[in-house]
Design brief:
The complex is a heterodimer of chains A (159) and B (448). In chain A, 44% of the residues lie in helices and 16% in strands. Chain A contains seven helices and five strands. Chain B is mainly alpha-helical. In chain B, helix 1 runs antiparallel to helix 17, helix 2 packs parallel to helix 17 and helix 19 packs parallel to helix 21. The two termini of chain B are 34 Å apart. Classes of the chains: A alpha+beta (159), B mainly alpha (448).
Chain lengths: 159, 448
């Protein structure tokens, strides 16, 4: 089982982009993150939706006290303004350190082991300097379902 | 020359051991003060160099270790780490904020008192780590600036920590070096703490409190908080509170039980680990025990390990005895002058540098003064001066105590930076005020 079949090709996120652009690319491609290039075109890490939401919307104290929060919160009222502000924000503040990447020849089981090792739900695929795309836990699950369906089809044809 | 005559006391590579020990000591303290390298690394390196250069041999170095301090700190850290998982501390903080109808000044008052009480029973860093998130959330909802709240909590944490044997590392070290019990600290130090806290809060009221205001709607948001939801594990809560109560009772009755605080704290830690793991699989137990031990602040523990060797090294070569003689020459061997001088010097030092190395150095210095004052039993005013000076002095600046830096770091992360100079401009005079109160207390309680 190789990665090629579950690879989702995307563009890079680049220095100077706004959060809005990254959200749009990620939502359209169905990926949780994009690799990040600085102004010199060098890979400097990645931008993830979860990272932007955590750092852009959720102070640590709200996370720590999530259980005690009531339904009425001051920030709920200003939500629209806050969302607008976040969307216009440059992405540089949300760049995370580079993740371990894999190649398109990597077996899925190895990719799954790396996902587990780094508690991640995605990995970037590079063949040398060539960026191929993103693989996600959902993509792997989908591929497993496909294999299962193919096998069932073969069994039913044989019987 | 002190008691460990089996240690190497010959010339080291042709150098006088006094110079080697003194240079190592000064260099290590200087590097600790720069805060460029983690203090545990520096202290441990300094301690090991004391052995490697031959100032002490390993046996003598181990005799310098204060296992009572190390055991008490480690035991309490494990107990608090497990207890905080139950959410009880957050419950108390939010419950107290709601008790005053979510009025900003009332909340500041309540959180400060809760901080002082928690700090007297837990370590200060843990206390502020529990209180600061609640404070930031509340001030966000009330739409008031968090600085006065955080500022007062820093001060309250160091003030409250001065009240008990287990409240602050300097007290733990003093309690371990001198046969003072938990009750001795309660009887001799705790009575002045409410007055110092009250005066501090009075100043805070004049500066900020009287102008604090929040809308009814914002206050309602706080009243809608459900503090009961912070209790995530009721069984763990009962177990933790039971063990915490047992340990505190153990401290109170330690004298009658003939037990040292370290034994009580480590027994409490082991008992709580047992209670929380008893019905689990061995794999789950290993995971839980590992997680609990991982929450011990090993940086602090190893900092102490290195520091004790370092101080024992300079004590061993007789440097601290010379320092004690210099202090006594300056004060004319008068108990009042010496106690008050120690109080003020401790406060000023602790405001500017880490109070732990300072207290670690002062303990043998004060011990060696015993013959001048007619025996160790007459040194009590000096010990209480050291405790109050070192603990309260931590309020003088942002770097005066670990808890101060923790609050500043957390606040900065949340977008509310606390700057060094503005903090010190307010905190230093308030620290001096607390030392003036402590001076009057020490004088009338112990010296007349």
């Amino acid at each position: 089982m190789k990665l090629k079949k579950i690879l989702i090709p995307t563009v890079f996120s680049r220095e100077g982009m706004k959060v809005r652009e990254v959200f749009t690319i990620c939502v359209e491609a169905g990926v949780p993150a994009l690799p990040y290039l600085n102004s010199k075109g060098e890979r400097r890490g990645f931008i993830s939706l979860a990272g932007i939401m955590h750092h852009g919307c959720l102070p640590n104290y709200m996370v720590e006290l999530a259980m005690v929060l009531g339904d009425q919160l001051s920030c709920v009222k200003d939500a629209t303004t806050k969302v607008r502000e976040l969307m216009d924000h440059p992405i540089e503040a949300y760049v995370d350190k580079p993740l371990h990447s894999i190649t398109s020849e990597t077996p899925i089981i190895k990719a799954m082991a790396i996902l587990e090792k780094f508690h991640s739900s995605f990995l970037f695929v590079f063949d040398g300097d060539e960026y191929r795309g993103v693989i996600t836990a959902q993509g792997i699950a989908q591929r497993m379902l496909e294999i299962d369906a193919e096998k069932s089809e073969v069994v039913s044809r044989e019987s | 020359m002190s008691e460990h005559s089996d240690s190497v006391m010959n010339m080291i590579f042709g150098w006088d051991p006094v110079w080697v020990a003194g240079t190592l000591f000064v260099l290590t303290y200087a590097v600790i003060m720069t805060e460029r390298v983690n203090r545990a690394i520096v202290a441990l390196l300094g301690g090991m160099l004391m052995i490697m250069t031959g100032v002490l041999n390993q046996e003598a170095a181990l005799r310098g270790e204060d296992f009572n301090t190390l055991g008490l700190l480690t035991g309490m850290m494990v107990i608090v780490a497990i207890t905080r998982r139950s959410g009880v501390f957050q419950f108390v903080a939010i419950w107290s904020a709601k008790k005053v109808g979510a009025q900003p000044w009332g909340i500041l008052l309540m959180l400060s008192v809760v901080t002082a009480i928690f700090s007297a029973l837990l370590d200060n860093v843990t206390t502020v780590l529990l209180i600061v998130p609640v404070t930031l959330l509340i001030t966000q909802e009330l739409k008031v600036t968090p600085f006065p709240f955080l500022f007062t909590e820093i001060l309250s944490s160091n003030i409250g920590g001065a009240a008990t044997l287990i409240g602050d590392p300097p007290n733990i070290m003093i309690g371990s070096a001198v046969p003072f019990s938990f009750n001795d600290f309660l009887i001799n130090l705790a009575p002045i703490i409410p007055l110092i806290l009250l005066m501090t809060l009075a100043v805070v009221w004049v500066i900020w409190g009287r102008k604090m205001h929040a809308s009814d709607e914002a206050r309602q948001n706080i009243m809608d908080f459900n503090e009961k939801n912070s209790i995530t594990d009721a069984r763990l809560l009962k177990q933790s509170l039971f063990v915490l109560a047992t340990v505190i009772s153990g401290f109170i009755f330690a004298h009658q039980l003939h037990l040292e605080p370290a034994t009580i704290a480590l027994f409490g830690a082991a008992l709580l680990l047992l209670l929380t793991n008893i019905k689990r699989s061995s794999e789950s137990q290993a995971k839980d025990v590992h997680a609990s031990f991982a929450e011990v602040e090993w940086i602090t523990i190893f900092f102490f390990v290195g520091l004790f060797i370092l101080v024992h090294g300079v004590e061993h070569v007789g440097l601290l005895e010379r320092l004690a003689n210099a202090v006594l020459d300056f004060t004319g061997g008068d108990l009042t002058n010496t106690a008050l001088m120690i109080l003020w010097i401790s406060a000023i030092f602790s405001a500017l540098v880490d109070n732990i190395p300072f207290v670690a150095t002062m303990i043998p210095v004060i011990k060696s003064m015993a013959p001048v004052f007619g025996g160790a039993e007459n040194l009590a005013p000096i010990w209480w001066s050291l405790a109050l000076g070192a603990c309260l002095g931590g309020n003088g600046s942002l770097i005066g105590a670990s808890a101060n830096l923790i609050v500043a770091g957390y606040a900065e992360q949340a977008g509310h930076p606390i700057r060094f100079v503005p903090f010190m401009l307010l905190a230093f005079p308030m620290m001096l005020m607390s030392i003036v109160i402590a001076t009057i207390y020490i004088y009338f309680r112990f010296l007349v």
